[in-house]
Here is the input.
Amino acid sequence: MELSERQQKIVEIVKEKGPITGEKIAELLALTRATLRPDLTVLTMSGYLDARPRVGYYYTGKTGGQLFKDKLLKLKVKDFQSIPVVIPEAASVYDAIVSMFLEDVGTLFVTDGRNKLVGIVSRKDLLRASMGKQDLEGIPVSIIMTRMPNVTVCYPDETMLETANKLISKQIDGLPVVKQDADGKLDVIGRLTKTNITKAFVELSREDG
Ligand code: ADP
Here is the structure.
């Protein structure tokens, strides 16, 4: 976040003289307390300053970079995840292609009879399986999918930064968001893709705080 000239002055004053009351800052800048109020709100909400009742404002010592990282680490999977698209392992390659078009997704999660995650199928998996084949309805997705335990997953409380790192290091487009059951099996509760990371990125730029 770019600070305005006046906000930078306030930070300098608080750095030098804090803890200091709002009235005193206003006096030093020859402004009214009311004029200053929005700036002080912005500076406390963005983490540059902190305020203690009856003591006043003080400087937190955090740089712009640290504040940005604090904000980034607050973005969690559960706040950005999409609805998962799941197909049963007995579904055919043909069914998977139809689901991919109908649901407009690039990755399908494959589950067993108890709705537990067993694999994942991507666009390229389906293209590869379809090349030169006539009977796509006769090939089950279970034989072409990337299967457990090789599926990379994420959890609702993970940070978006952690999932972005997984997508980059594994060179994949999406992750199932999962919850582990008592037997250690995974229930699919969401979908986290590069699109969700892009949305989080845009949100970061929108926030004033
Ligand atoms: P695309 O095929 O559209 O390029 P990806 O890059 O996501 O999509 O997939 C590349 C390969 O990685 C595929 O073989 C796919 O099965 C596999 N894959 C995709 N997502 C995951 C995941 N979360 N964990 C493990 N493997 C995955």
Q: What stands out?
A: The pocket of adenosine-5'-diphosphate is lined by residues 106-107, 120, 122-125, 146, 150-152, 172-175 (CB under 6 Å).
